[in-house]
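Our platform keeps sequence and structure together, in a single record for each protein. Nothing more is needed to write down the fold, since each code stands for a local backbone conformation. An entry from our holdings is shown next, in its original layout:
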Amino acid sequence: MPTEPRRPVRPERISPRLVVDDVHDQLLRLIIDGHLPADSPLSIDALAREFGVSSSPVREALTRLESTGLVQRLALRGYRVAPALTADELADLIDARLLLEPAVAAAAALRPARDGLVDELEASVVALAAAPHGEQFDSFRAYYDADREFHRAIVAGTHNRFLVHAYDALGSHVQRFRLFSGRGVTDAETTVAEHRAIARAISAGDADAASQAMRTHLVGVRTRALAEIQD
């Protein structure tokens, strides 16, 4: 019996990597690894010459980094690397997160259709646990990304765009202490356990437990980070 000829598989669409993505990643690495120290000025023209690109991707990359809090733009003075968070600023940032994220976790736990979110959180916890966490950015970037994606997924899981906007205003600054600390990741085992507790509570639809697990995690983050500053 003759077999039907195999139909050729169409290739997937190629998503070209933009020059600005490469410039952004290079700037991020230089800042986090201390080659561009906190408070140092950032010249668009000088960076463009160093990277061998035009000024446009450098300017766009700096705009992206400004939204993370790692870079600041000063009127009439251009860009600079942001100063490291002080202990008081860090405490204020975590206090702000404590007002928002426990409530967000509770809201996510109450969503009737959350299977996709639960799968995403579980995958993020697995990625967090498996990620390396040395002192250089290249060695802890996967950890950093998994941590960030975990928290962002919970907020997105509420399907409330106002909560998402509120979180983004805070969340962009969340990693500044870690990125400027020069120590990389020092609390991986504890953080993974705390993330697992949050994911389990959301999976169970237990809003109170999700809120409390998130609060425990954030208080732990504050305690550990302040201890590092004091050291």
